[in-house]
Amino acid sequence: MTARASSSAMSPPPPARFAAYDRQTWREIAHLLANLPLGVAGFVYVVVALAAGGGLAVTVIGLPLLAAALLGARQIGKAERARARGLLGLRIDEPSPMPKQRDHGFFSWLWSSLKDPVGWRTMLYSFMRLPWGIVTFTVSLVGLFVLWPVLPFIVRGLSNADRAMVRGLLSPSDELERRIVELESDRGIVVDTAAADLRRIERDLHDGAQARLVALAMGLGLAKEKLLEDPDTAAAMVDEAHGEVKLALQELRDLARGIHPAVLTDRGLDAALSSVASRCTVPVKVTADLPTRPAAAIEGIAYFTVSELLQNISKHSGARSASVEVWRADQRLLIQVWDDGRGGANLDGGTGMAGLADRLGAVDGLFVIESPVGGPTTITAELPWRDRDRDRDARG
Questions:
Q1: In the structure, what pLDDT confidence band is assigned to residue 13 with cuts at 50, 70 and 90?
Q2: Which fold has domain 263-395?
Q3: 49-63, 221-235, 380-394 — which is least confidently predicted?
Q4: pTM for the whole structure
Q5: Which of 276, 380, 372 shows the shortest CA–CA distance to 338?
Q6: DSSP-H helix ranges across 205-230
Q7: Which residue from 76, 89, 303, 306 has the highest number of Cβ atoms inside 10 Å of its Cβ?
Q8: Contact present, 289 and 315 (Cβ < 8 Å)
Q9: C-beta neighbour count of 343 within 10 angstroms
Q10: How far is CA 251 from the centre of its chain?
Q11: CA atoms of 233 and 253, how far apart (whole Å)
């Protein structure tokens, strides 16, 4: 009996039941056990949202309820990504935010929310969590008391399935989703730019050529009345009207040049840039290395970009010389405008730089400013090269 007691005292104590479980395994077990209550909550949220939104779709509140539910689903997805990050060690980028609506109208918000892919994917994720949560909760709980020697392997397999589900439904859909958001934003920029151009043309016509033509008609009417009574005065008024006609024609030519200059259409970007450079108050050297012509739309954007930059040089830079270089590199049209002025140009300077950057960005272009205080300033713009013949074939 003494020998038995001594032998028992010398034997090591039995290992703790869960001593082999590391910290990550316990985190994964906690995640799998939490799947059930969170799955119930998510399932109820989706069912109620779809039932209320779909059932009331014939009324004025059904679709807004569904849109609000999709926005709420985004918050569920955010919480689930945080849970996966904390318990599964899975780091996933946040998806793109809802695109900003430029008109800020109710129907614009409603349509944007209803077609939100992030919200719908989160809804699907929440709907699937209930059956999956029942499986993971049951297996993990039973395994803690029955299958504990092999439970870490089971937990790892279930957690990997969870990771795949989170990646598949809660992660950003890479470039496609981001590109959709960018294109929607770019479309708004293009629309706003076109509207601003139309307002500018309308203003120039109203305040310039139209006002001058109205004055011309009135002057000719007075000259007609005086033609028999006072021919000399009538002749002087007709002569004055002739001068007004010349000025009106010049204003109309300038306006047409601002819309799309004829030299650009007839002779291409090299000649058009040389023409606009000749009107700059600073001597400008133009160098163009373009073996072929890009599409008309790209030529137009390049022309107006350089035109506005040269206007800024004339008005704001205090430069003594400037240069414009245009060339093709692979499938890109590159423009570089340089001046030796005072520098300090930036996108927030109120000189239209932000508008130029937006206009180029809308066609997948780039706009880079290097302008330290004291100068010099170098502005580089890139545009996609689109072949003129291919563009003509696409239109035809």
A1: very low
A2: Heat Shock Protein 90 (3.30.565)
A3: 380-394
A4: 0.46
A5: 380
A6: 211-226
A7: 306
A8: no
A9: 19
A10: 37
A11: 30
